[in-house]
Amino acid sequence: MVLGYLLYEAVDLGVNAIKLTYNGVRGTYYWWYNEDYPEVAQEKRKIDDIEKLIAKIDRLENILEQKQIDKTLLNK
User: What DSSP state is assigned to residue 35?
Assistant: First the structure.
């Protein structure tokens, strides 16, 4: 039973050491080349897309309001 516990802890420490090494190397790579993590870049693209869509909606609302104003002026 103690042997199983020691093996489990050894594997757990090994996995955590590998994770720490991987994340450290990955972070250093992106820092060195001054790039964003892919997750961050994806979020930035989503935000840009949302901002573009909001601008398009605003533009279309302005066009619609202008048409309604023109229509009311023609009816008078």
Answer: -
Helices and strands, counts by H and E, the chain: 2, 0
- What is the secondary structure of 8-45 as a DSSP string? HHHHHHHHHHHHHHHHHHHHHHHHHTT---HHHHHHHH
Distance CA 49, CA 71 (A): 33
pTM of the model: 0.63
Q: Please state the rounded mean pLDDT for residues 66-76.
A: 79
Report the distance separating Cα 48 and Cα 43, nearest Å.
9
For residues 71 and 59, the model is more confident at 59
Q: Which two tokens stand for residue 4?
A: 């199983």
Q: Are 57 and 49 spatial neighbours (Cβ–Cβ below 8 Å)? A: no
